[in-house]
TrEMBL record, chains A, B:
Binds 2 Zn(2+) ions per subunit. Keywords: Hydrolase, Metal-binding, Zinc. This is Zn-dependent hydrolase. Zn(2+) 1 binds at H79, D90, H186. The keyword Protein biosynthesis does not apply. Belongs to the peptidase M20 family. Its cofactor is Zn(2+). GO terms for molecular function: hydrolase activity, acting on carbon-nitrogen (but not peptide) bonds, in linear amidines; metal ion binding. Residues 210-305 form the Peptidase M20 dimerisation domain. The keyword Nucleotide-binding does not apply. Gene3D superfamilies: 3.30.70.360, Zn peptidases.
Length: 406, 406
């Protein structure tokens, strides 16, 4: 069995890095704080004699050899980066739980048949450079590495420069290698498990998403002298598009998701009619067809609003991620491990994107969810109980062990 | 007669300070760029042997003595600060025109009966510290100086610190002194004079305004997992309030003005339902009663929207400025000077706030408008013709001379 206290202590130690006054974490990808988190992670791995390699996207792989040199590795992992005002567990739980699996194997002197590797993926959150699942996305071949290197944050710092600046650009190529399976433990980030009193979520797949960058161009003008008829108010257009996103989300009932999370009024001033507004748009739905329909309809409806307001809209689709089903074999291992351990479970579809979604394109994959308080995530108040973390990690341990020794 | 070429050259010289690539000016109040503008202005004044004094708000007064020591001074002025992406003429025209008046008096060796003073008011624009007409507002007693000293910009720098940092806090008290009249030349910043082909606007007063700071509090939540029914989206609320501002503006037809010029999503991230949004709101109308009605109705209607969305709204009224009529005697002087010079004129109400509005509370005041291209202002493309600047300055010269020698 894994050590619940040791797990929790390491979770709290990681949460000190980038801790915010309100009890959350701000460990934005490829910042100095992320660098500190990576260093602590590497130190812990090296204490266990794991061999750590880093690829060209900064993805970190900590390897424990198995008995049989012909066997492909069993992978586990998640991410250490956070939202600007994120919680202690989104991502970190999966990495630290993987560490606890490694520690348990080490302590119990277990030699698995297959090698086991623990991964810390770079920039899962996507809040800094605009695409979530960046490290795993390049690794999986979804994004060409050169393209990703050129993406810039709001200050114009590119991914390539950010990697170099904190010394995170490794020498290994960022591309898939043969692997036997990938397991990722994560908090649910939604309310379902908590509401139904289940200890473990058996994740069968992840919902579809589409993301855009939007720029509305109006005309800066004096707020006091410019009559209604002469205004080209870019913020008013953005406001009407925000209402459209909400309307299109609600048309899909409880399964709909539509969000404008980021918005900037360029050169904003209180007494200036805004001339340029930039914002993000994303929609999600469990079914690919629903997202494809939205991806077809939204640009035109938004453009109609913008044109009616004489403020042209420039929309750039960043990605469209179809629904990703997980591997039935791996999902079965998670379900059986949970049952063996006596945990109450429920099959669930992930509302969030996860690195597992891209890994699943080349490696048989499954995920394990633990409940989180009030379903809250991407919030400093994100919270889970030590027993919940322990249960999820126990399942991860059993699943990895079962797969590595099968 | 004033020297149109010298006037234009000095306007262009001032526009070099804070020049933007798009041909505009960024000379935000109490920044290093503003400091440079002040220094150049002071240098020009001192060349003419004007005595420059500075008050506790950084307002600068350049005095030319008159023949009769018992006469009260005739004042003229405007402001050298600009919007974040402002033009070359908003404010600067009035100051540099005043300088040209002084140069002409100097060159022609004219000794006026009354003293003449040229003023550069601090922070007319209000884009940095939240209240427009700050320097003249404290001077006029509208804002207590201690309160204004404590106002902070978005980085937390207070007015007091900003004044100290650029050495702009003078020793003279910022309060009204006896004066005979105040004349301010300014670009119209609207389309009326240009549309009607008039060379000079005889400003009879300025419209009423009300400004607010708004904060909407929702709850940060994961964009992928949080169902519509569980969302408390602060940006959606702000968007609906922006639409309300537009609706309330349009209810007043062509006289209505309603603007959300500044908005910030706090800790914004693309995949986070926004938990906090801050924005500015302002309305204007030629009639005080209309603004009072809006000031009474808007907070309640906005709160209803916010509450329906379960995201409370905190509204803080920054100021309510009633319609300010100008002094009939001074307005008459402007009208007569224009007629004498053979310019086509039109009476006009100012859509913008101007320092003249506060000065008018204790000193007989009038303003002179010149047309500007396409009515554009608070925009880097703001533009006027040299002949227009010359005409307005000629009227200013004649008006000041007439009043100082009456
Ligand atoms: N797990 C998680 O929060 N991922 C961030 C990517 C997304 O789903 O928006
Ligand atoms: N003249 C001018 O643009 N003043 C700024 C204050 C305002 O009217 O908003």
């Amino acid at each position: 069995r894994i050590d619940g206290k040791r797990l929790w202590d390491s979770l709290m130690a990681m949460a000190e890095i980038g801790a915010t006054p309100k009890g959350g974490v701000r460990r934005l990808t490829l910042t100095d704080v992320d660098k500190d988190g990576r260093a602590r992670f590497r130190g812990w791995c090296e204490t266990l004699d794991l061999k750590v390699r880093v690829d060209a996207m900064g993805n970190m792989f900590a390897r424990r050899e198995g008995r049989d040199p012909t066997r492909l590795p069993v992978l586990m992992g998640s991410h250490l980066d956070s939202q600007p005002t994120g919680g202690k567990f989104d991502g970190a739980l999966g990495v630290i739980a993987g560490l606890e699996v490694m520690r348990t194997l080490h302590e119990l002197n277990i030699q698995t048949e297959a090698p086991v590797e623990l991964i810390n993926w770079t920039d899962e959150e996507g809040s800094r450079f605009g695409r979530s699942l960046m490290g795993s996305g390049v690794w999986a071949g979804v994004y060409p590495q050169d393209a990703a290197y050129g993406w810039a944050d709001i200050d114009g710092v590119t991914v390539s420069d950010a990697l170099d600046r904190i010394g995170a650009k490794g020498e290994h190529p960022a591309k898939p290698f043969p692997a036997d399976a990938y397991f990722e433990l994560h908090i649910e980030q939604g309310p379902i498990l908590e509401r139904e009193g289940k200890q473990v979520g058996v994740v069968t797949g992840a919902q579809a998403q589409v993301w855009w960058d939007a720029v509305v161009t109006g005309q800066d003008a004096h707020a006091g002298t410019t009559p209604p008829s002469a205004r080209k108010d870019a913020l008013l257009t953005a406001a009407r598009i925000i209402a459209l996103v909400d309307e299109m989300m609600r048309a899909h009932g409880d399964d709909g998701r539509g969000t404008v999370g980021w918005l900037q009024v360029v050169n904003a001033s209180r007494n200036v009619v805004p001339g340029e507004v930039r914002f993000s748009v994303e929609f999600r739905h469990p079914e690919t067809a629903a997202i494809e329909a939205i991806a077809a309809a939204f640009p035109q409806r938004a453009a109609e609003i913008a044109n009616a307001n004489r403020t042209p809209l420039d929309l750039k689709e960043l990605f469209l991620l179809p629904h990703q089903p997980f591997d039935p074999g791996c999902v079965g291992i998670v379900r059986e491990a949970s049952a063996r351990l006596g945990y109450t479970t429920r099959d669930i579809i992930s509302g969030a994107g996860h690195d597992a979604v891209y890994v699943a394109r080349s490696v048989p994959t499954a995920m394990i969810f633990t409940p989180c308080k009030d379903g809250l995530s991407h919030n400093e108040a994100e919270s889970i109980e030590p027993e919940e973390a322990e249960a999820g990690t126990q399942v991860l341990f059993q699943a990895v062990l079962a797969r590595a020794n099968r």
